């Protein structure tokens, strides 16, 4: 209905995307071997470019056939479907279950172990400090020696995502302003995301070596 309304929904969407990126990295890392962890994360990251390319092509067809609202309705429907599949199929973090140590967590850990071809464990052993873990607080990120690491990580992630979204969002528009047709500009934008996909996988292969 207004630019403000659009802006608010964009912020909420951004929070969701940021949460997905952070959590998926952790899960992919935790369920990968030390040798192939870099490649596993790179493959998951490459999927982002593939999805952007397919989504872009689908959006063009949906918008021309059913209007711009169809793009958002389709995206919401697919997101709900994938979320349902994740609730059913995605295993919980083993570190989280092990350190929480509630009744029934041992059974959940062993169920996951069997699913991924590992031997069951007789008991849960907390990593690091044996004391019962307490809930984390935002202030812990800035306590003691954590402040510098937190600020640097936030700055690096912000700069990376800022550059990523800037290039992906503005390249087609700039090319169109420079004289290319709308179709040529869209194709160039999709080539950009495909190049990022290939680059991500190549980086993962190098990292694993």
How would you portray this structure in words?
The protein is mainly α and 209 residues long. 75% of the residues lie in helices and 0% in strands. The chain contains 7 helices and no strands. It has helices at residues 3-30, 37-66, 68-89, 94-100, 105-115, 146-177, 182-208. Helix 2 runs antiparallel to helix 3 (68-89) and helix 4 packs antiparallel against helix 5 (105-115). The radius of gyration is 21 Å and the shape is globular. The N and C termini lie far apart (52 Å). The mean pLDDT is 85.
Sum this structure up briefly.
By secondary structure, the chain is mainly alpha-helical.
**How many DSSP E strands?**
0
- Report the radius of gyration as a whole number of Å: 21 Å
Work out the helicity level: over 70%
Estimate the mean pLDDT confidence.
85
Query: Span from first to last CA?
Result: 52 Å
> What about the largest sheet?
none
Distinct helical segment count = 7
Spell out the helices and strands N to C. Answer: HHHHHHH
Strand content: under 5%
Uncertain residue ranges: none
Alpha-beta content class: mainly alpha
The 3D shape can be described as: globular
What key phrases describe this protein's structure?
single chain; mainly alpha
SSE layout:
Layout: H1 3-30, H2 37-66, H3 68-89, H4 94-100, H5 105-115, H6 146-177, H7 182-208
Helix pairs in contact: 1-2, 2-3, 2-7, 4-5, 6-7
């Amino acid at each position: 209905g207004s630019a403000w309304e659009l802006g608010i929904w964009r912020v909420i969407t951004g929070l969701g995307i940021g949460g997905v990126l952070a959590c998926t990295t952790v899960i992919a890392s935790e369920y990968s071997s030390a040798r192939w962890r870099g490649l596993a994360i790179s493959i998951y990251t490459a999927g982002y470019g593939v999805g952007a390319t397919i989504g872009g092509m689908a959006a063009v067809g949906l918008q021309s056939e059913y209007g711009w609202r169809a793009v958002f309705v389709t995206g919401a429907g697919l997101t709900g479907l994938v979320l349902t599949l994740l609730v059913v199929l995605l295993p919980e973090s083993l570190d989280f279950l092990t350190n929480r140590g509630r009744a029934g967590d041992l059974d959940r850990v062993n169920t996951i172990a069997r699913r991924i071809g590992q031997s069951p464990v007789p008991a849960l052993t907390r990593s690091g400090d044996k004391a019962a873990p307490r809930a984390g607080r935002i202030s812990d990120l800035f306590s003691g020696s954590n402040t510098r690491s937190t600020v640097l990580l936030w700055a690096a992630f912000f700069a990376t995502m800022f550059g990523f979204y800037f290039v992906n969002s503005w390249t087609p528009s700039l090319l169109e302003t420079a004289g290319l047709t709308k179709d040529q500009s869209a194709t160039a934008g999709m080539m950009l995301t495909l190049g990022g996909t290939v680059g991500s996988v190549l980086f993962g292969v190098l990292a694993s070596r």
